[in-house]
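Hi there,

I know you've been waiting on this one. I reran it after we fixed the sequence typo, so this is the corrected version. Both the input and the resulting structure follow.
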Amino acid sequence: MSNSTISATIAAESMSDDMHLDLADIAGIFEYATSRLSAIRTKLESTRLTLPMKTRWIIGQYLNWEGESFTLPWMSFCAGLSISLPLSRNLQFFIGVLSMKQVGLVTNFEEVYNAFMTLPAALAGPWQKGRLTRTYWTPWWINTANMIADDDFLHKYPNCVEVQRIIAEHFQQLPEGKVLITPATLTIPMCTPVAQQLSNIHVEVLHEGQLIVKMLEDKVVKAKMVAATMLCMDIALGQDVVKAIAATKRLTKYLKREAAQ
């Protein structure tokens, strides 16, 4: 099963639960995902030089699981509701790595691990690096020395209700009063500056197209009027010429008769 199929399945399963999400919940999910990435990165930094290739490959699998559990399905959910994603810089980088894996630019899970380890372990602000807590749900990164690939774990994902519970436990561990969530915001389709420009261009082109059609129609009408006028003129002119020729003939006969006398 492909990653995109898995993510779609997770999203569908999440929506089938008793789902009561608001914008703060969506922001909380991505805050938690960022915090987990920071905890994972901090732990792996202390062991990166001692991990064998097999372990790095397994870690790459678990990192992929992180994205499929706490990021990718919720990004799809937000996209369906036109919600602007409050993704930290670290989370954006991580999603970029997973995207490269999906399109084949990153070819295996060891490369996922190697790319993830280029992520800065500490950045300027808590929102960028995530706010670490004492405990995390299923902290698989704690014991990297004896890590194995748990296939049952790697193919099971938290549903909506479980995610809400996990997020609630995460915020209960944070110091009281530290509200650093960047709220998710709704975006109305076709209301971004670029979309507005494209819409305006579309309307102007449509309007100009209608004007051109109207002009051509007018030209056709004018052409018909001119043609009809010319036809009338030709007929009138032809009749005048015929009359002039007849008069000339009569005049010629008269002049010849006068000359003979």
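Quick highlight: Residues 4-12 have pLDDT under 50 and may be disordered.

Best,
R. S.
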